[in-house]
């Protein structure tokens, strides 16, 4: 099953995001221990097209519990970067 993770940064989180970026990238490089696969991911950006304001993931996983465990273990979550995280099932229609 596919799941979308939509995470919005808390106000003023950009310096913390940048300080934890390498740990976040390393974490994302091997998701096998969670039983999930990243289909695609990347930062959400402000209307200027550059300023990072959140994260978006499309995850393939057996169920929601695996996605929640994966998300909780992300260094960005541990650093308190995200103010609001929504995990929603997703049905692929195109692409």
UniProtKB/TrEMBL annotation:
Transmembrane segments: none annotated. Residues 1-90 form the YCII-related domain. InterPro entries: Dimeric_a/b-barrel, Sec-metab_biosynth-assoc, YCII. It comes from the Bacteria. The lineage of its organism: Bacteria, Pseudomonadati, Pseudomonadota, Alphaproteobacteria, Hyphomicrobiales. Belongs to the YciI family. Pfam families: YCII. This is YciI family protein. It comes from Bradyrhizobium agreste.
């Amino acid at each position: 099953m596919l799941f979308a993770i939509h995470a919005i940064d808390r106000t003023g989180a950009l310096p913390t995001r940048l300080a934890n970026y390498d740990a976040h990238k390393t974490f994302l490089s091997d998701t096998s221990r969670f039983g999930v696969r990243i289909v695609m991911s990347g930062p959400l950006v402000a209307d200027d097209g550059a300023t990072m304001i959140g994260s978006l993931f499309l995850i393939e996983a057996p169920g929601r519990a695996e996605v929640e465990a994966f998300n909780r273990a992300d260094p960005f979550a541990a650093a308190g970067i995200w103010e609001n995280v929504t995990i929603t099932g997703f049905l692929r229609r195109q692409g």
